[in-house]
Sequence to fold (252 residues):
Amino acid sequence: MLVVNLEIILLLIIMPLIEVERLNKDYFTDGVPANILRDVNLKVEENEFVAIMGPSGSGKSTLLHILGFLERPSSGIYRFDGKQIDEYSDDELAQIRNRKIGFVFQAFNLLARQSVFENVAIPLIYAGVNSSERKKIIEETVKMVGLEHRLHYETSKLSGGEKQRVAMARALVNNPRMILADEPTGNLDSQSGGVVMDTLKQLNKKGHAIVLITHESYTASYASRIIHLLDGKVEREELVAQPVEEEKTFIK
Fold:
């Protein structure tokens, strides 16, 4: 007879996707430390949409890089899916970045002379997905962001808003549990920014956790919770009473 530990089951059910405790990040210049993040504590639940706000230099992007395993903290605890970062091997971290986390950056980070199809294919190639299955997944994902008519265009020929949607398709193609978006509307006009935020909102409704970095209050209001950073510390958190739903007018 199988005996199930109820406490373990309950712990797994209520466990946040990511959890940070007393996290610090220091950089050194000529031996002099600069404290970028100081005693940061935060949680992000499965399927949650969280915005991290703060002025330039507050540590927003550094925190996002740590959450995405692109950098390691100087001290403190970071748990992803219930396991501390130090308990993962480098190969396991690489697999998590490829399969469980999608990245969307302000600068798009696309291969300019490659097509939309070829850019979106990159995470699937790293994941070892065969060519016939890749084609099906890419076509479905690009259609999801409304760019099926641009599938074989070089990304250098696309508008800024279209480039960002290609970046979003690339982030989504392995069906990650969490999307980390660093100022995704920062280089876009209001119309393109609105399309990008509406897409992120729809992805969250489909079950993807979203962590959004922004300095724009209106952009942050798409989230259900906002974490305010100041001088590397969590200044305060707020619940958004009425998160923005799909809107025709996006305010920057």
